[in-house]
Design goal:
Blueprint: E1 6-9, E2 15-18, H1 31-37, H2 69-75, H3 138-143, H4 156-161, H5 167-199, H6 218-225, E3 229-236, E4 239-247, E5 253-256, H7 258-266, E6 271-275, E7 281-283, E8 285-290, E9 295-299, E10 321-326, E11 334-349, E12 358-365, E13 377-379, E14 385-392, E15 407-411, H8 412-425, E16 431-432, E17 435-439, E18 448-453, H9 458-462, E19 469-473, E20 476-477, H10 481-489, E21 496-503, E22 506-513, E23 515-516
Antiparallel strand pairs: 1-2, 3-4, 3-6, 4-5, 5-9, 6-7, 8-9, 10-11, 10-13, 11-12, 12-15, 13-14, 14-15, 16-23, 17-18, 18-19, 19-20, 19-21, 21-22
């Protein structure tokens, strides 16, 4: 801080004011810092006084211990050489005689420097650096190789245990190890002898390497499905027939075609036999049939039969791979492969033994189907049931020809629904329009022409008349008489469905509440 000014009188007669010097500010010293960076105790001046030769301050004496034994042995003097030094001896090369001195007291004689002596070449600073034999004394050089004394040899206990084990304990340890080894040998011999008595003689059957097949191959699918496909033998007196069937329920229900067992429906003496893939033969009992869709259900008493996996026929598309498995012409477990040629193909066939015509919406396939395949399985690429083989198209009027690549199967979704009704009720009811119709013209797709209308039927109540051409039922187009039947059966009994028809060249739509057949 500033001190007040004091007046100063000068010769000019006026006063001059001056400021006093600012006092020195000394901050307090940290004791810890002073202990680390302060002067040693007893030293008041600067540190360089300890090393100046003209100072009276005594330097701090350094207390050093004796050198390590290894360093003393390597670099120390040998015994008896305590007075030997490497410096020039006192008075060597000096003389007070001016005749032999150069004025500095150095003799100019012929002796030369101290290191000129051959006895001690290590004193010469100009000697070259070379690799040679180690420096030896004259006595050692003369003696040559001297045998040096060796220390005492160590015994095995001393090496292993460091002289800490008594011989008695070592002997006892050896005895224990010997006993343990002998015991282990006895146990091994006993186990080996017991193993021979247990195993005895073994007979190994020679097995050939099995062929690996992909899980989606035809062979793998056939092995999976074949146990669930059966042959059905129908014997009526001296005549009979062969068909196929599929096990659809663990309780022994088998799905097949109506025309396979139709003769047994007419004659109670007709025998129906079901033959499984393993050769098991059992009597088949008819649970119910549906002649209009050519389906029938049998029941057999077999424990734990192999049941086929049910697929979704609505998920099929033209071109999908399918397989037909059955007993064509009595050849059991025949497998044929093909593709789905078409879907929703309306087919019809005359009924047998006075039964009504057969009509259903079929899956068309080019897999080889022949007589005897009826009632067999049509499976997809996973082995799931998608259809029941039922009908083929042949060439000629006799209908006895073989497959020409036009086979038809009842969709599995429709077949399972009908089989459930047969198992539950024994019969099946279908939706009906109440008309008799025929295709407008052969091999055309112009609709179904009404030939007559059943009085009081749903068609009569809706105003449909003879001569009308029906072209659509609900959302499905009608191109012929067979398609009219399957289009109506797609709906439930009592359901109200719009029907489009052509009358006198004009189109009109009527609402029909479907009845039962």
């Amino acid at each position: 801080m500033n001190e007040p000014a004091t007046p100063n009188q000068e010769e000019s007669g006026h006063q001059e004011y001056r400021l006093r010097p600012r006092p020195v500010m000394r901050p307090p010293v940290d004791p810890e810092a002073a202990a680390v960076f302060g002067r040693p105790k007893g030293v008041k001046g600067s540190f360089d006084l300890l090393h100046r030769p003209d100072t009276n301050v005594c330097p701090v004496s350094l207390q050093t211990g004796p050198p390590p034994p290894a360093l003393a042995e390597a670099f120390g003097r040998r015994p008896g050489e305590e007075n030997v030094v490497l410096q020039r001896p006192d008075g060597y090369g000096r003389s007070d005689d001016p005749a032999v001195s150069d004025g500095d007291g150095v003799r100019e004689d012929e002796e030369g420097p101290l290191w000129a002596s051959e006895s001690d070449p290590w004193r010469d600073p100009n000697s070259p650096v070379v690799l040679g034999a180690p420096a030896l004394r004259e006595q050692e050089r003369a003696e040559g190789d001297v045998e040096r004394p060796t220390g005492p040899l160590l015994s095995l206990p001393e090496v292993l245990f460091g002289r800490r084990v008594k011989p008695t304990a070592l002997a006892l340890l050896a005895v224990v190890a010997l006993l343990i080894g002998a015991g282990g040998g006895v146990v091994g011999w006993a186990l080996a002898s017991a193993g021979d008595s247990l195993t005895g003689e073994l007979n190994f059957a020679e097995a050939e390497a099995a062929k690996e097949r992909p899980p989606d191959s035809v062979a793998a699918i056939a092995q999976k499905v074949a146990p669930a496909v059966v042959s059905i033998e129908v014997e009526a007196g001296q005549s009979g027939g062969v068909g196929s069937g599929v096990v659809i329920d663990p309780q022994g229900y088998i799905l097949t075609n109506h025309h396979v067992v139709s003769s047994a429906m007419q004659d109670d003496d007709t025998k129906v036999t079901v033959v499984f893939i393993d050769g098991t033969r059992t009597r088949g009992e008819i649970v119910g049939t549906d002649p209009k869709t050519d389906l029938a259900v049998l029941k057999v008493n077999v424990e734990n039969p192999v049941v086929i996996e049910i697929g979704d026929s609505d998920s099929l598309a033209p071109g999908d791979r399918v397989m037909a498995i059955g007993s064509p012409f009595g050849l059991e477990n025949t497998v044929t492969e093909g593709i789905v040629s078409a879907l929703n193909r309306p087919v019809t066939a005359p009924g047998e033994n006075g039964d009504p015509p057969v009509t259903y919406d079929a899956i068309q396939t080019d897999a080889a189907i022949n007589p005897g395949n009826s009632g067999g399985a049509l499976v997809d690429s996973t082995g799931a049931l998608v259809g029941i083989n039922s009908m083929i198209r042949t060439v000629g009027d006799s209908g006895e020809g073989g497959s020409i690549g036009l086979g038809f199967a009842i969709p599995a979704n429709q077949a399972i629904r009908i089989s459930e009704s047969l198992v539950r009720d024994g019969t099946v009811k279908h939706a009906s329009l109440g008309v008799n119709a025929a295709s407008v013209a052969a091999n055309t797709s112009r609709g179904a022409q009404v030939r007559n209308v059943v009085p009081g039927s749903p068609a009569a109540q809706a105003g449909i008349k003879e001569g009308d051409v029906i072209v659509r039922v609900g959302e499905r187009q009608v191109r012929n008489a067979a398609e009219l039947t399957v289009a109506v059966r797609e709906h439930d009994i009592g359901e109200s469905v719009p029907v489009r028809l052509v009358r006198g060249g004009r189109q009109l739509t009527v609402e029909v509440t479907l009845g039962s057949d």
